[in-house]
Amino acid sequence: MADNLTDTKRVASILSEAKRVLVIGCSGGGKTTLARRLSEHYELPFVSMDREFFWLPGWVSRAREEQRNLITARVAEARWVMDGTNPSTFDLRLPRADVVLWVRMPRLLCLIGVMRRWLKWRGAARPEMADGCPERVSWEFVRYIWTFERKFVPRIETGLREHGPDVPVLQIRSRAQMRTLLELLAARA
After folding, report:
1. 3-class DSSP state of 59
2. Nearest to 93 by CA among 138, 143, 53, 62
C-alpha cells in the first residue's frame, strides 16, 4: 500500500478525481451503503460483486473462471464503484482502481449490521444480491465475521501490497469517520 490515508479531507479530494473506486471490508460494516452513496454522488456505475460475479439463483456459486472473466470485462470499463472484498481477485481489480476505501469496523458492529440487514430483508434478496438468493445468516457466516480480522485481513494486506502498491487506501474505522467523509462529499457537491 503506497499510501494509507488518514486525512478524510484529502480522501474527499482524491475521490473527486477518481473514476474507479474499490470499496472493501467485512460483511455488515457498511461498505455497500458507502459504495452506493459514492456511486450516486459521483454518478459512477455501482458494481456489486455478489450480484454480478459470484452468485447465481439459489445461492449457487458461479464457476471461478467465469467469475474472473466477468470481473476482467467489468474492470476494463472507464468508470465504476465496486463493492466487494475477495482478495483472490485483487490481481484483476487493484491495477485498475484509483482509490480503495477499506471499511474496517469492529466485529460487533459488523455482526449488528448483518443482523439488522437480515431482519430487513429476511426471506427476500436485497438489491445488491443475485435474484433467488434470499438474505440469510448462518453460524458459518457469523464465524466468518468474528474471525475476519485474524483470518482475512492478512490476505487483504498482502493483496494490496502485491497488486496495488501505488493505489491510495483509506481505512474507515468508525461510523463517525464514514459520516464525516459523506458530509465532506455532500459539501463539495
Report:
1. coil
2. 53
Residues of the chain with pLDDT > 90, as a percent, come to 81
Tens of each residue's pLDDT in the chain, 189 residues: 444 556 677 777 788 889 999 999 999 999 999 999 999 999 999 999 999 999 999 999 999 999 999 999 999 999 999 999 999 999 999 999 999 999 999 999 999 999 999 999 998 999 999 999 999 999 999 999 999 999 999 999 999 999 999 999 999 999 898 888 888 877 765
- Under DSSP, the state recorded for 128 is T
The answer to whether the Cα torsion of 89, 51, 70, 58 is positive or negative is positive
Cell of 89: 481477485
Q: Give kind and range of the element (H or E) at residue 5.
A: strand 3-5
Phi-psi group of 56: left, alpha or beta (phi > 0 → left; psi -120 to 50 → alpha; rest → beta)? beta
Q: With beta carbons less than 8 A apart as the criterion, state whether 137 and 118 touch.
A: yes
Contacts (Cβ under 8 Å, ≥6 apart) of 52: 70, 74
* Cell numbers linked to 114: 448483518
Residue 131 and residue 32: Cα distance in Å, rounded? 17
